[in-house]
Amino acid sequence: MFDECIQQVKNPAHDVFILRVLEDKSADEVCRIMDISPSYLWVLLHRARLQLKVSLEAKWTGKDAK
């Protein structure tokens, strides 16, 4: 279920989430890899978490994700 939901997260938030959370890269490493600023990294992580939350809640409750 998690894999399905994470695939619904839009790029570049998806890639940032994978690198930072699932691959446990440091914030500096992710910024270098993605060529983004630290502040944009945190914005993208926030967006990824929100999208993931909506998707997971939809799967658990049986409602369509927005």
Structure explained in plain terms:
The protein has one domain (2-61): Winged helix-like DNA-binding domain superfamily/Winged helix DNA-binding domain (Arc Repressor Mutant, subunit A, Orthogonal Bundle). It has four helices and no strands. The chain has helices at residues 2-7, 13-22, 27-34, 38-61. α2 packs across α4 (38-61). The longest helix has 24 residues, at 38-61.
Q: What would the CATH topology be?
A: Arc Repressor Mutant, subunit A
Shape: elongated
Distance between the termini: 17 Å
Which structural category do the helix and sheet elements fall into?
A: mainly alpha
The CATH superfamily bears the name Winged helix-like DNA-binding domain superfamily/Winged helix DNA-binding domain
Mean pLDDT: 91
Domain module count: 1
- Radius of gyration (CA) equals 12 Å
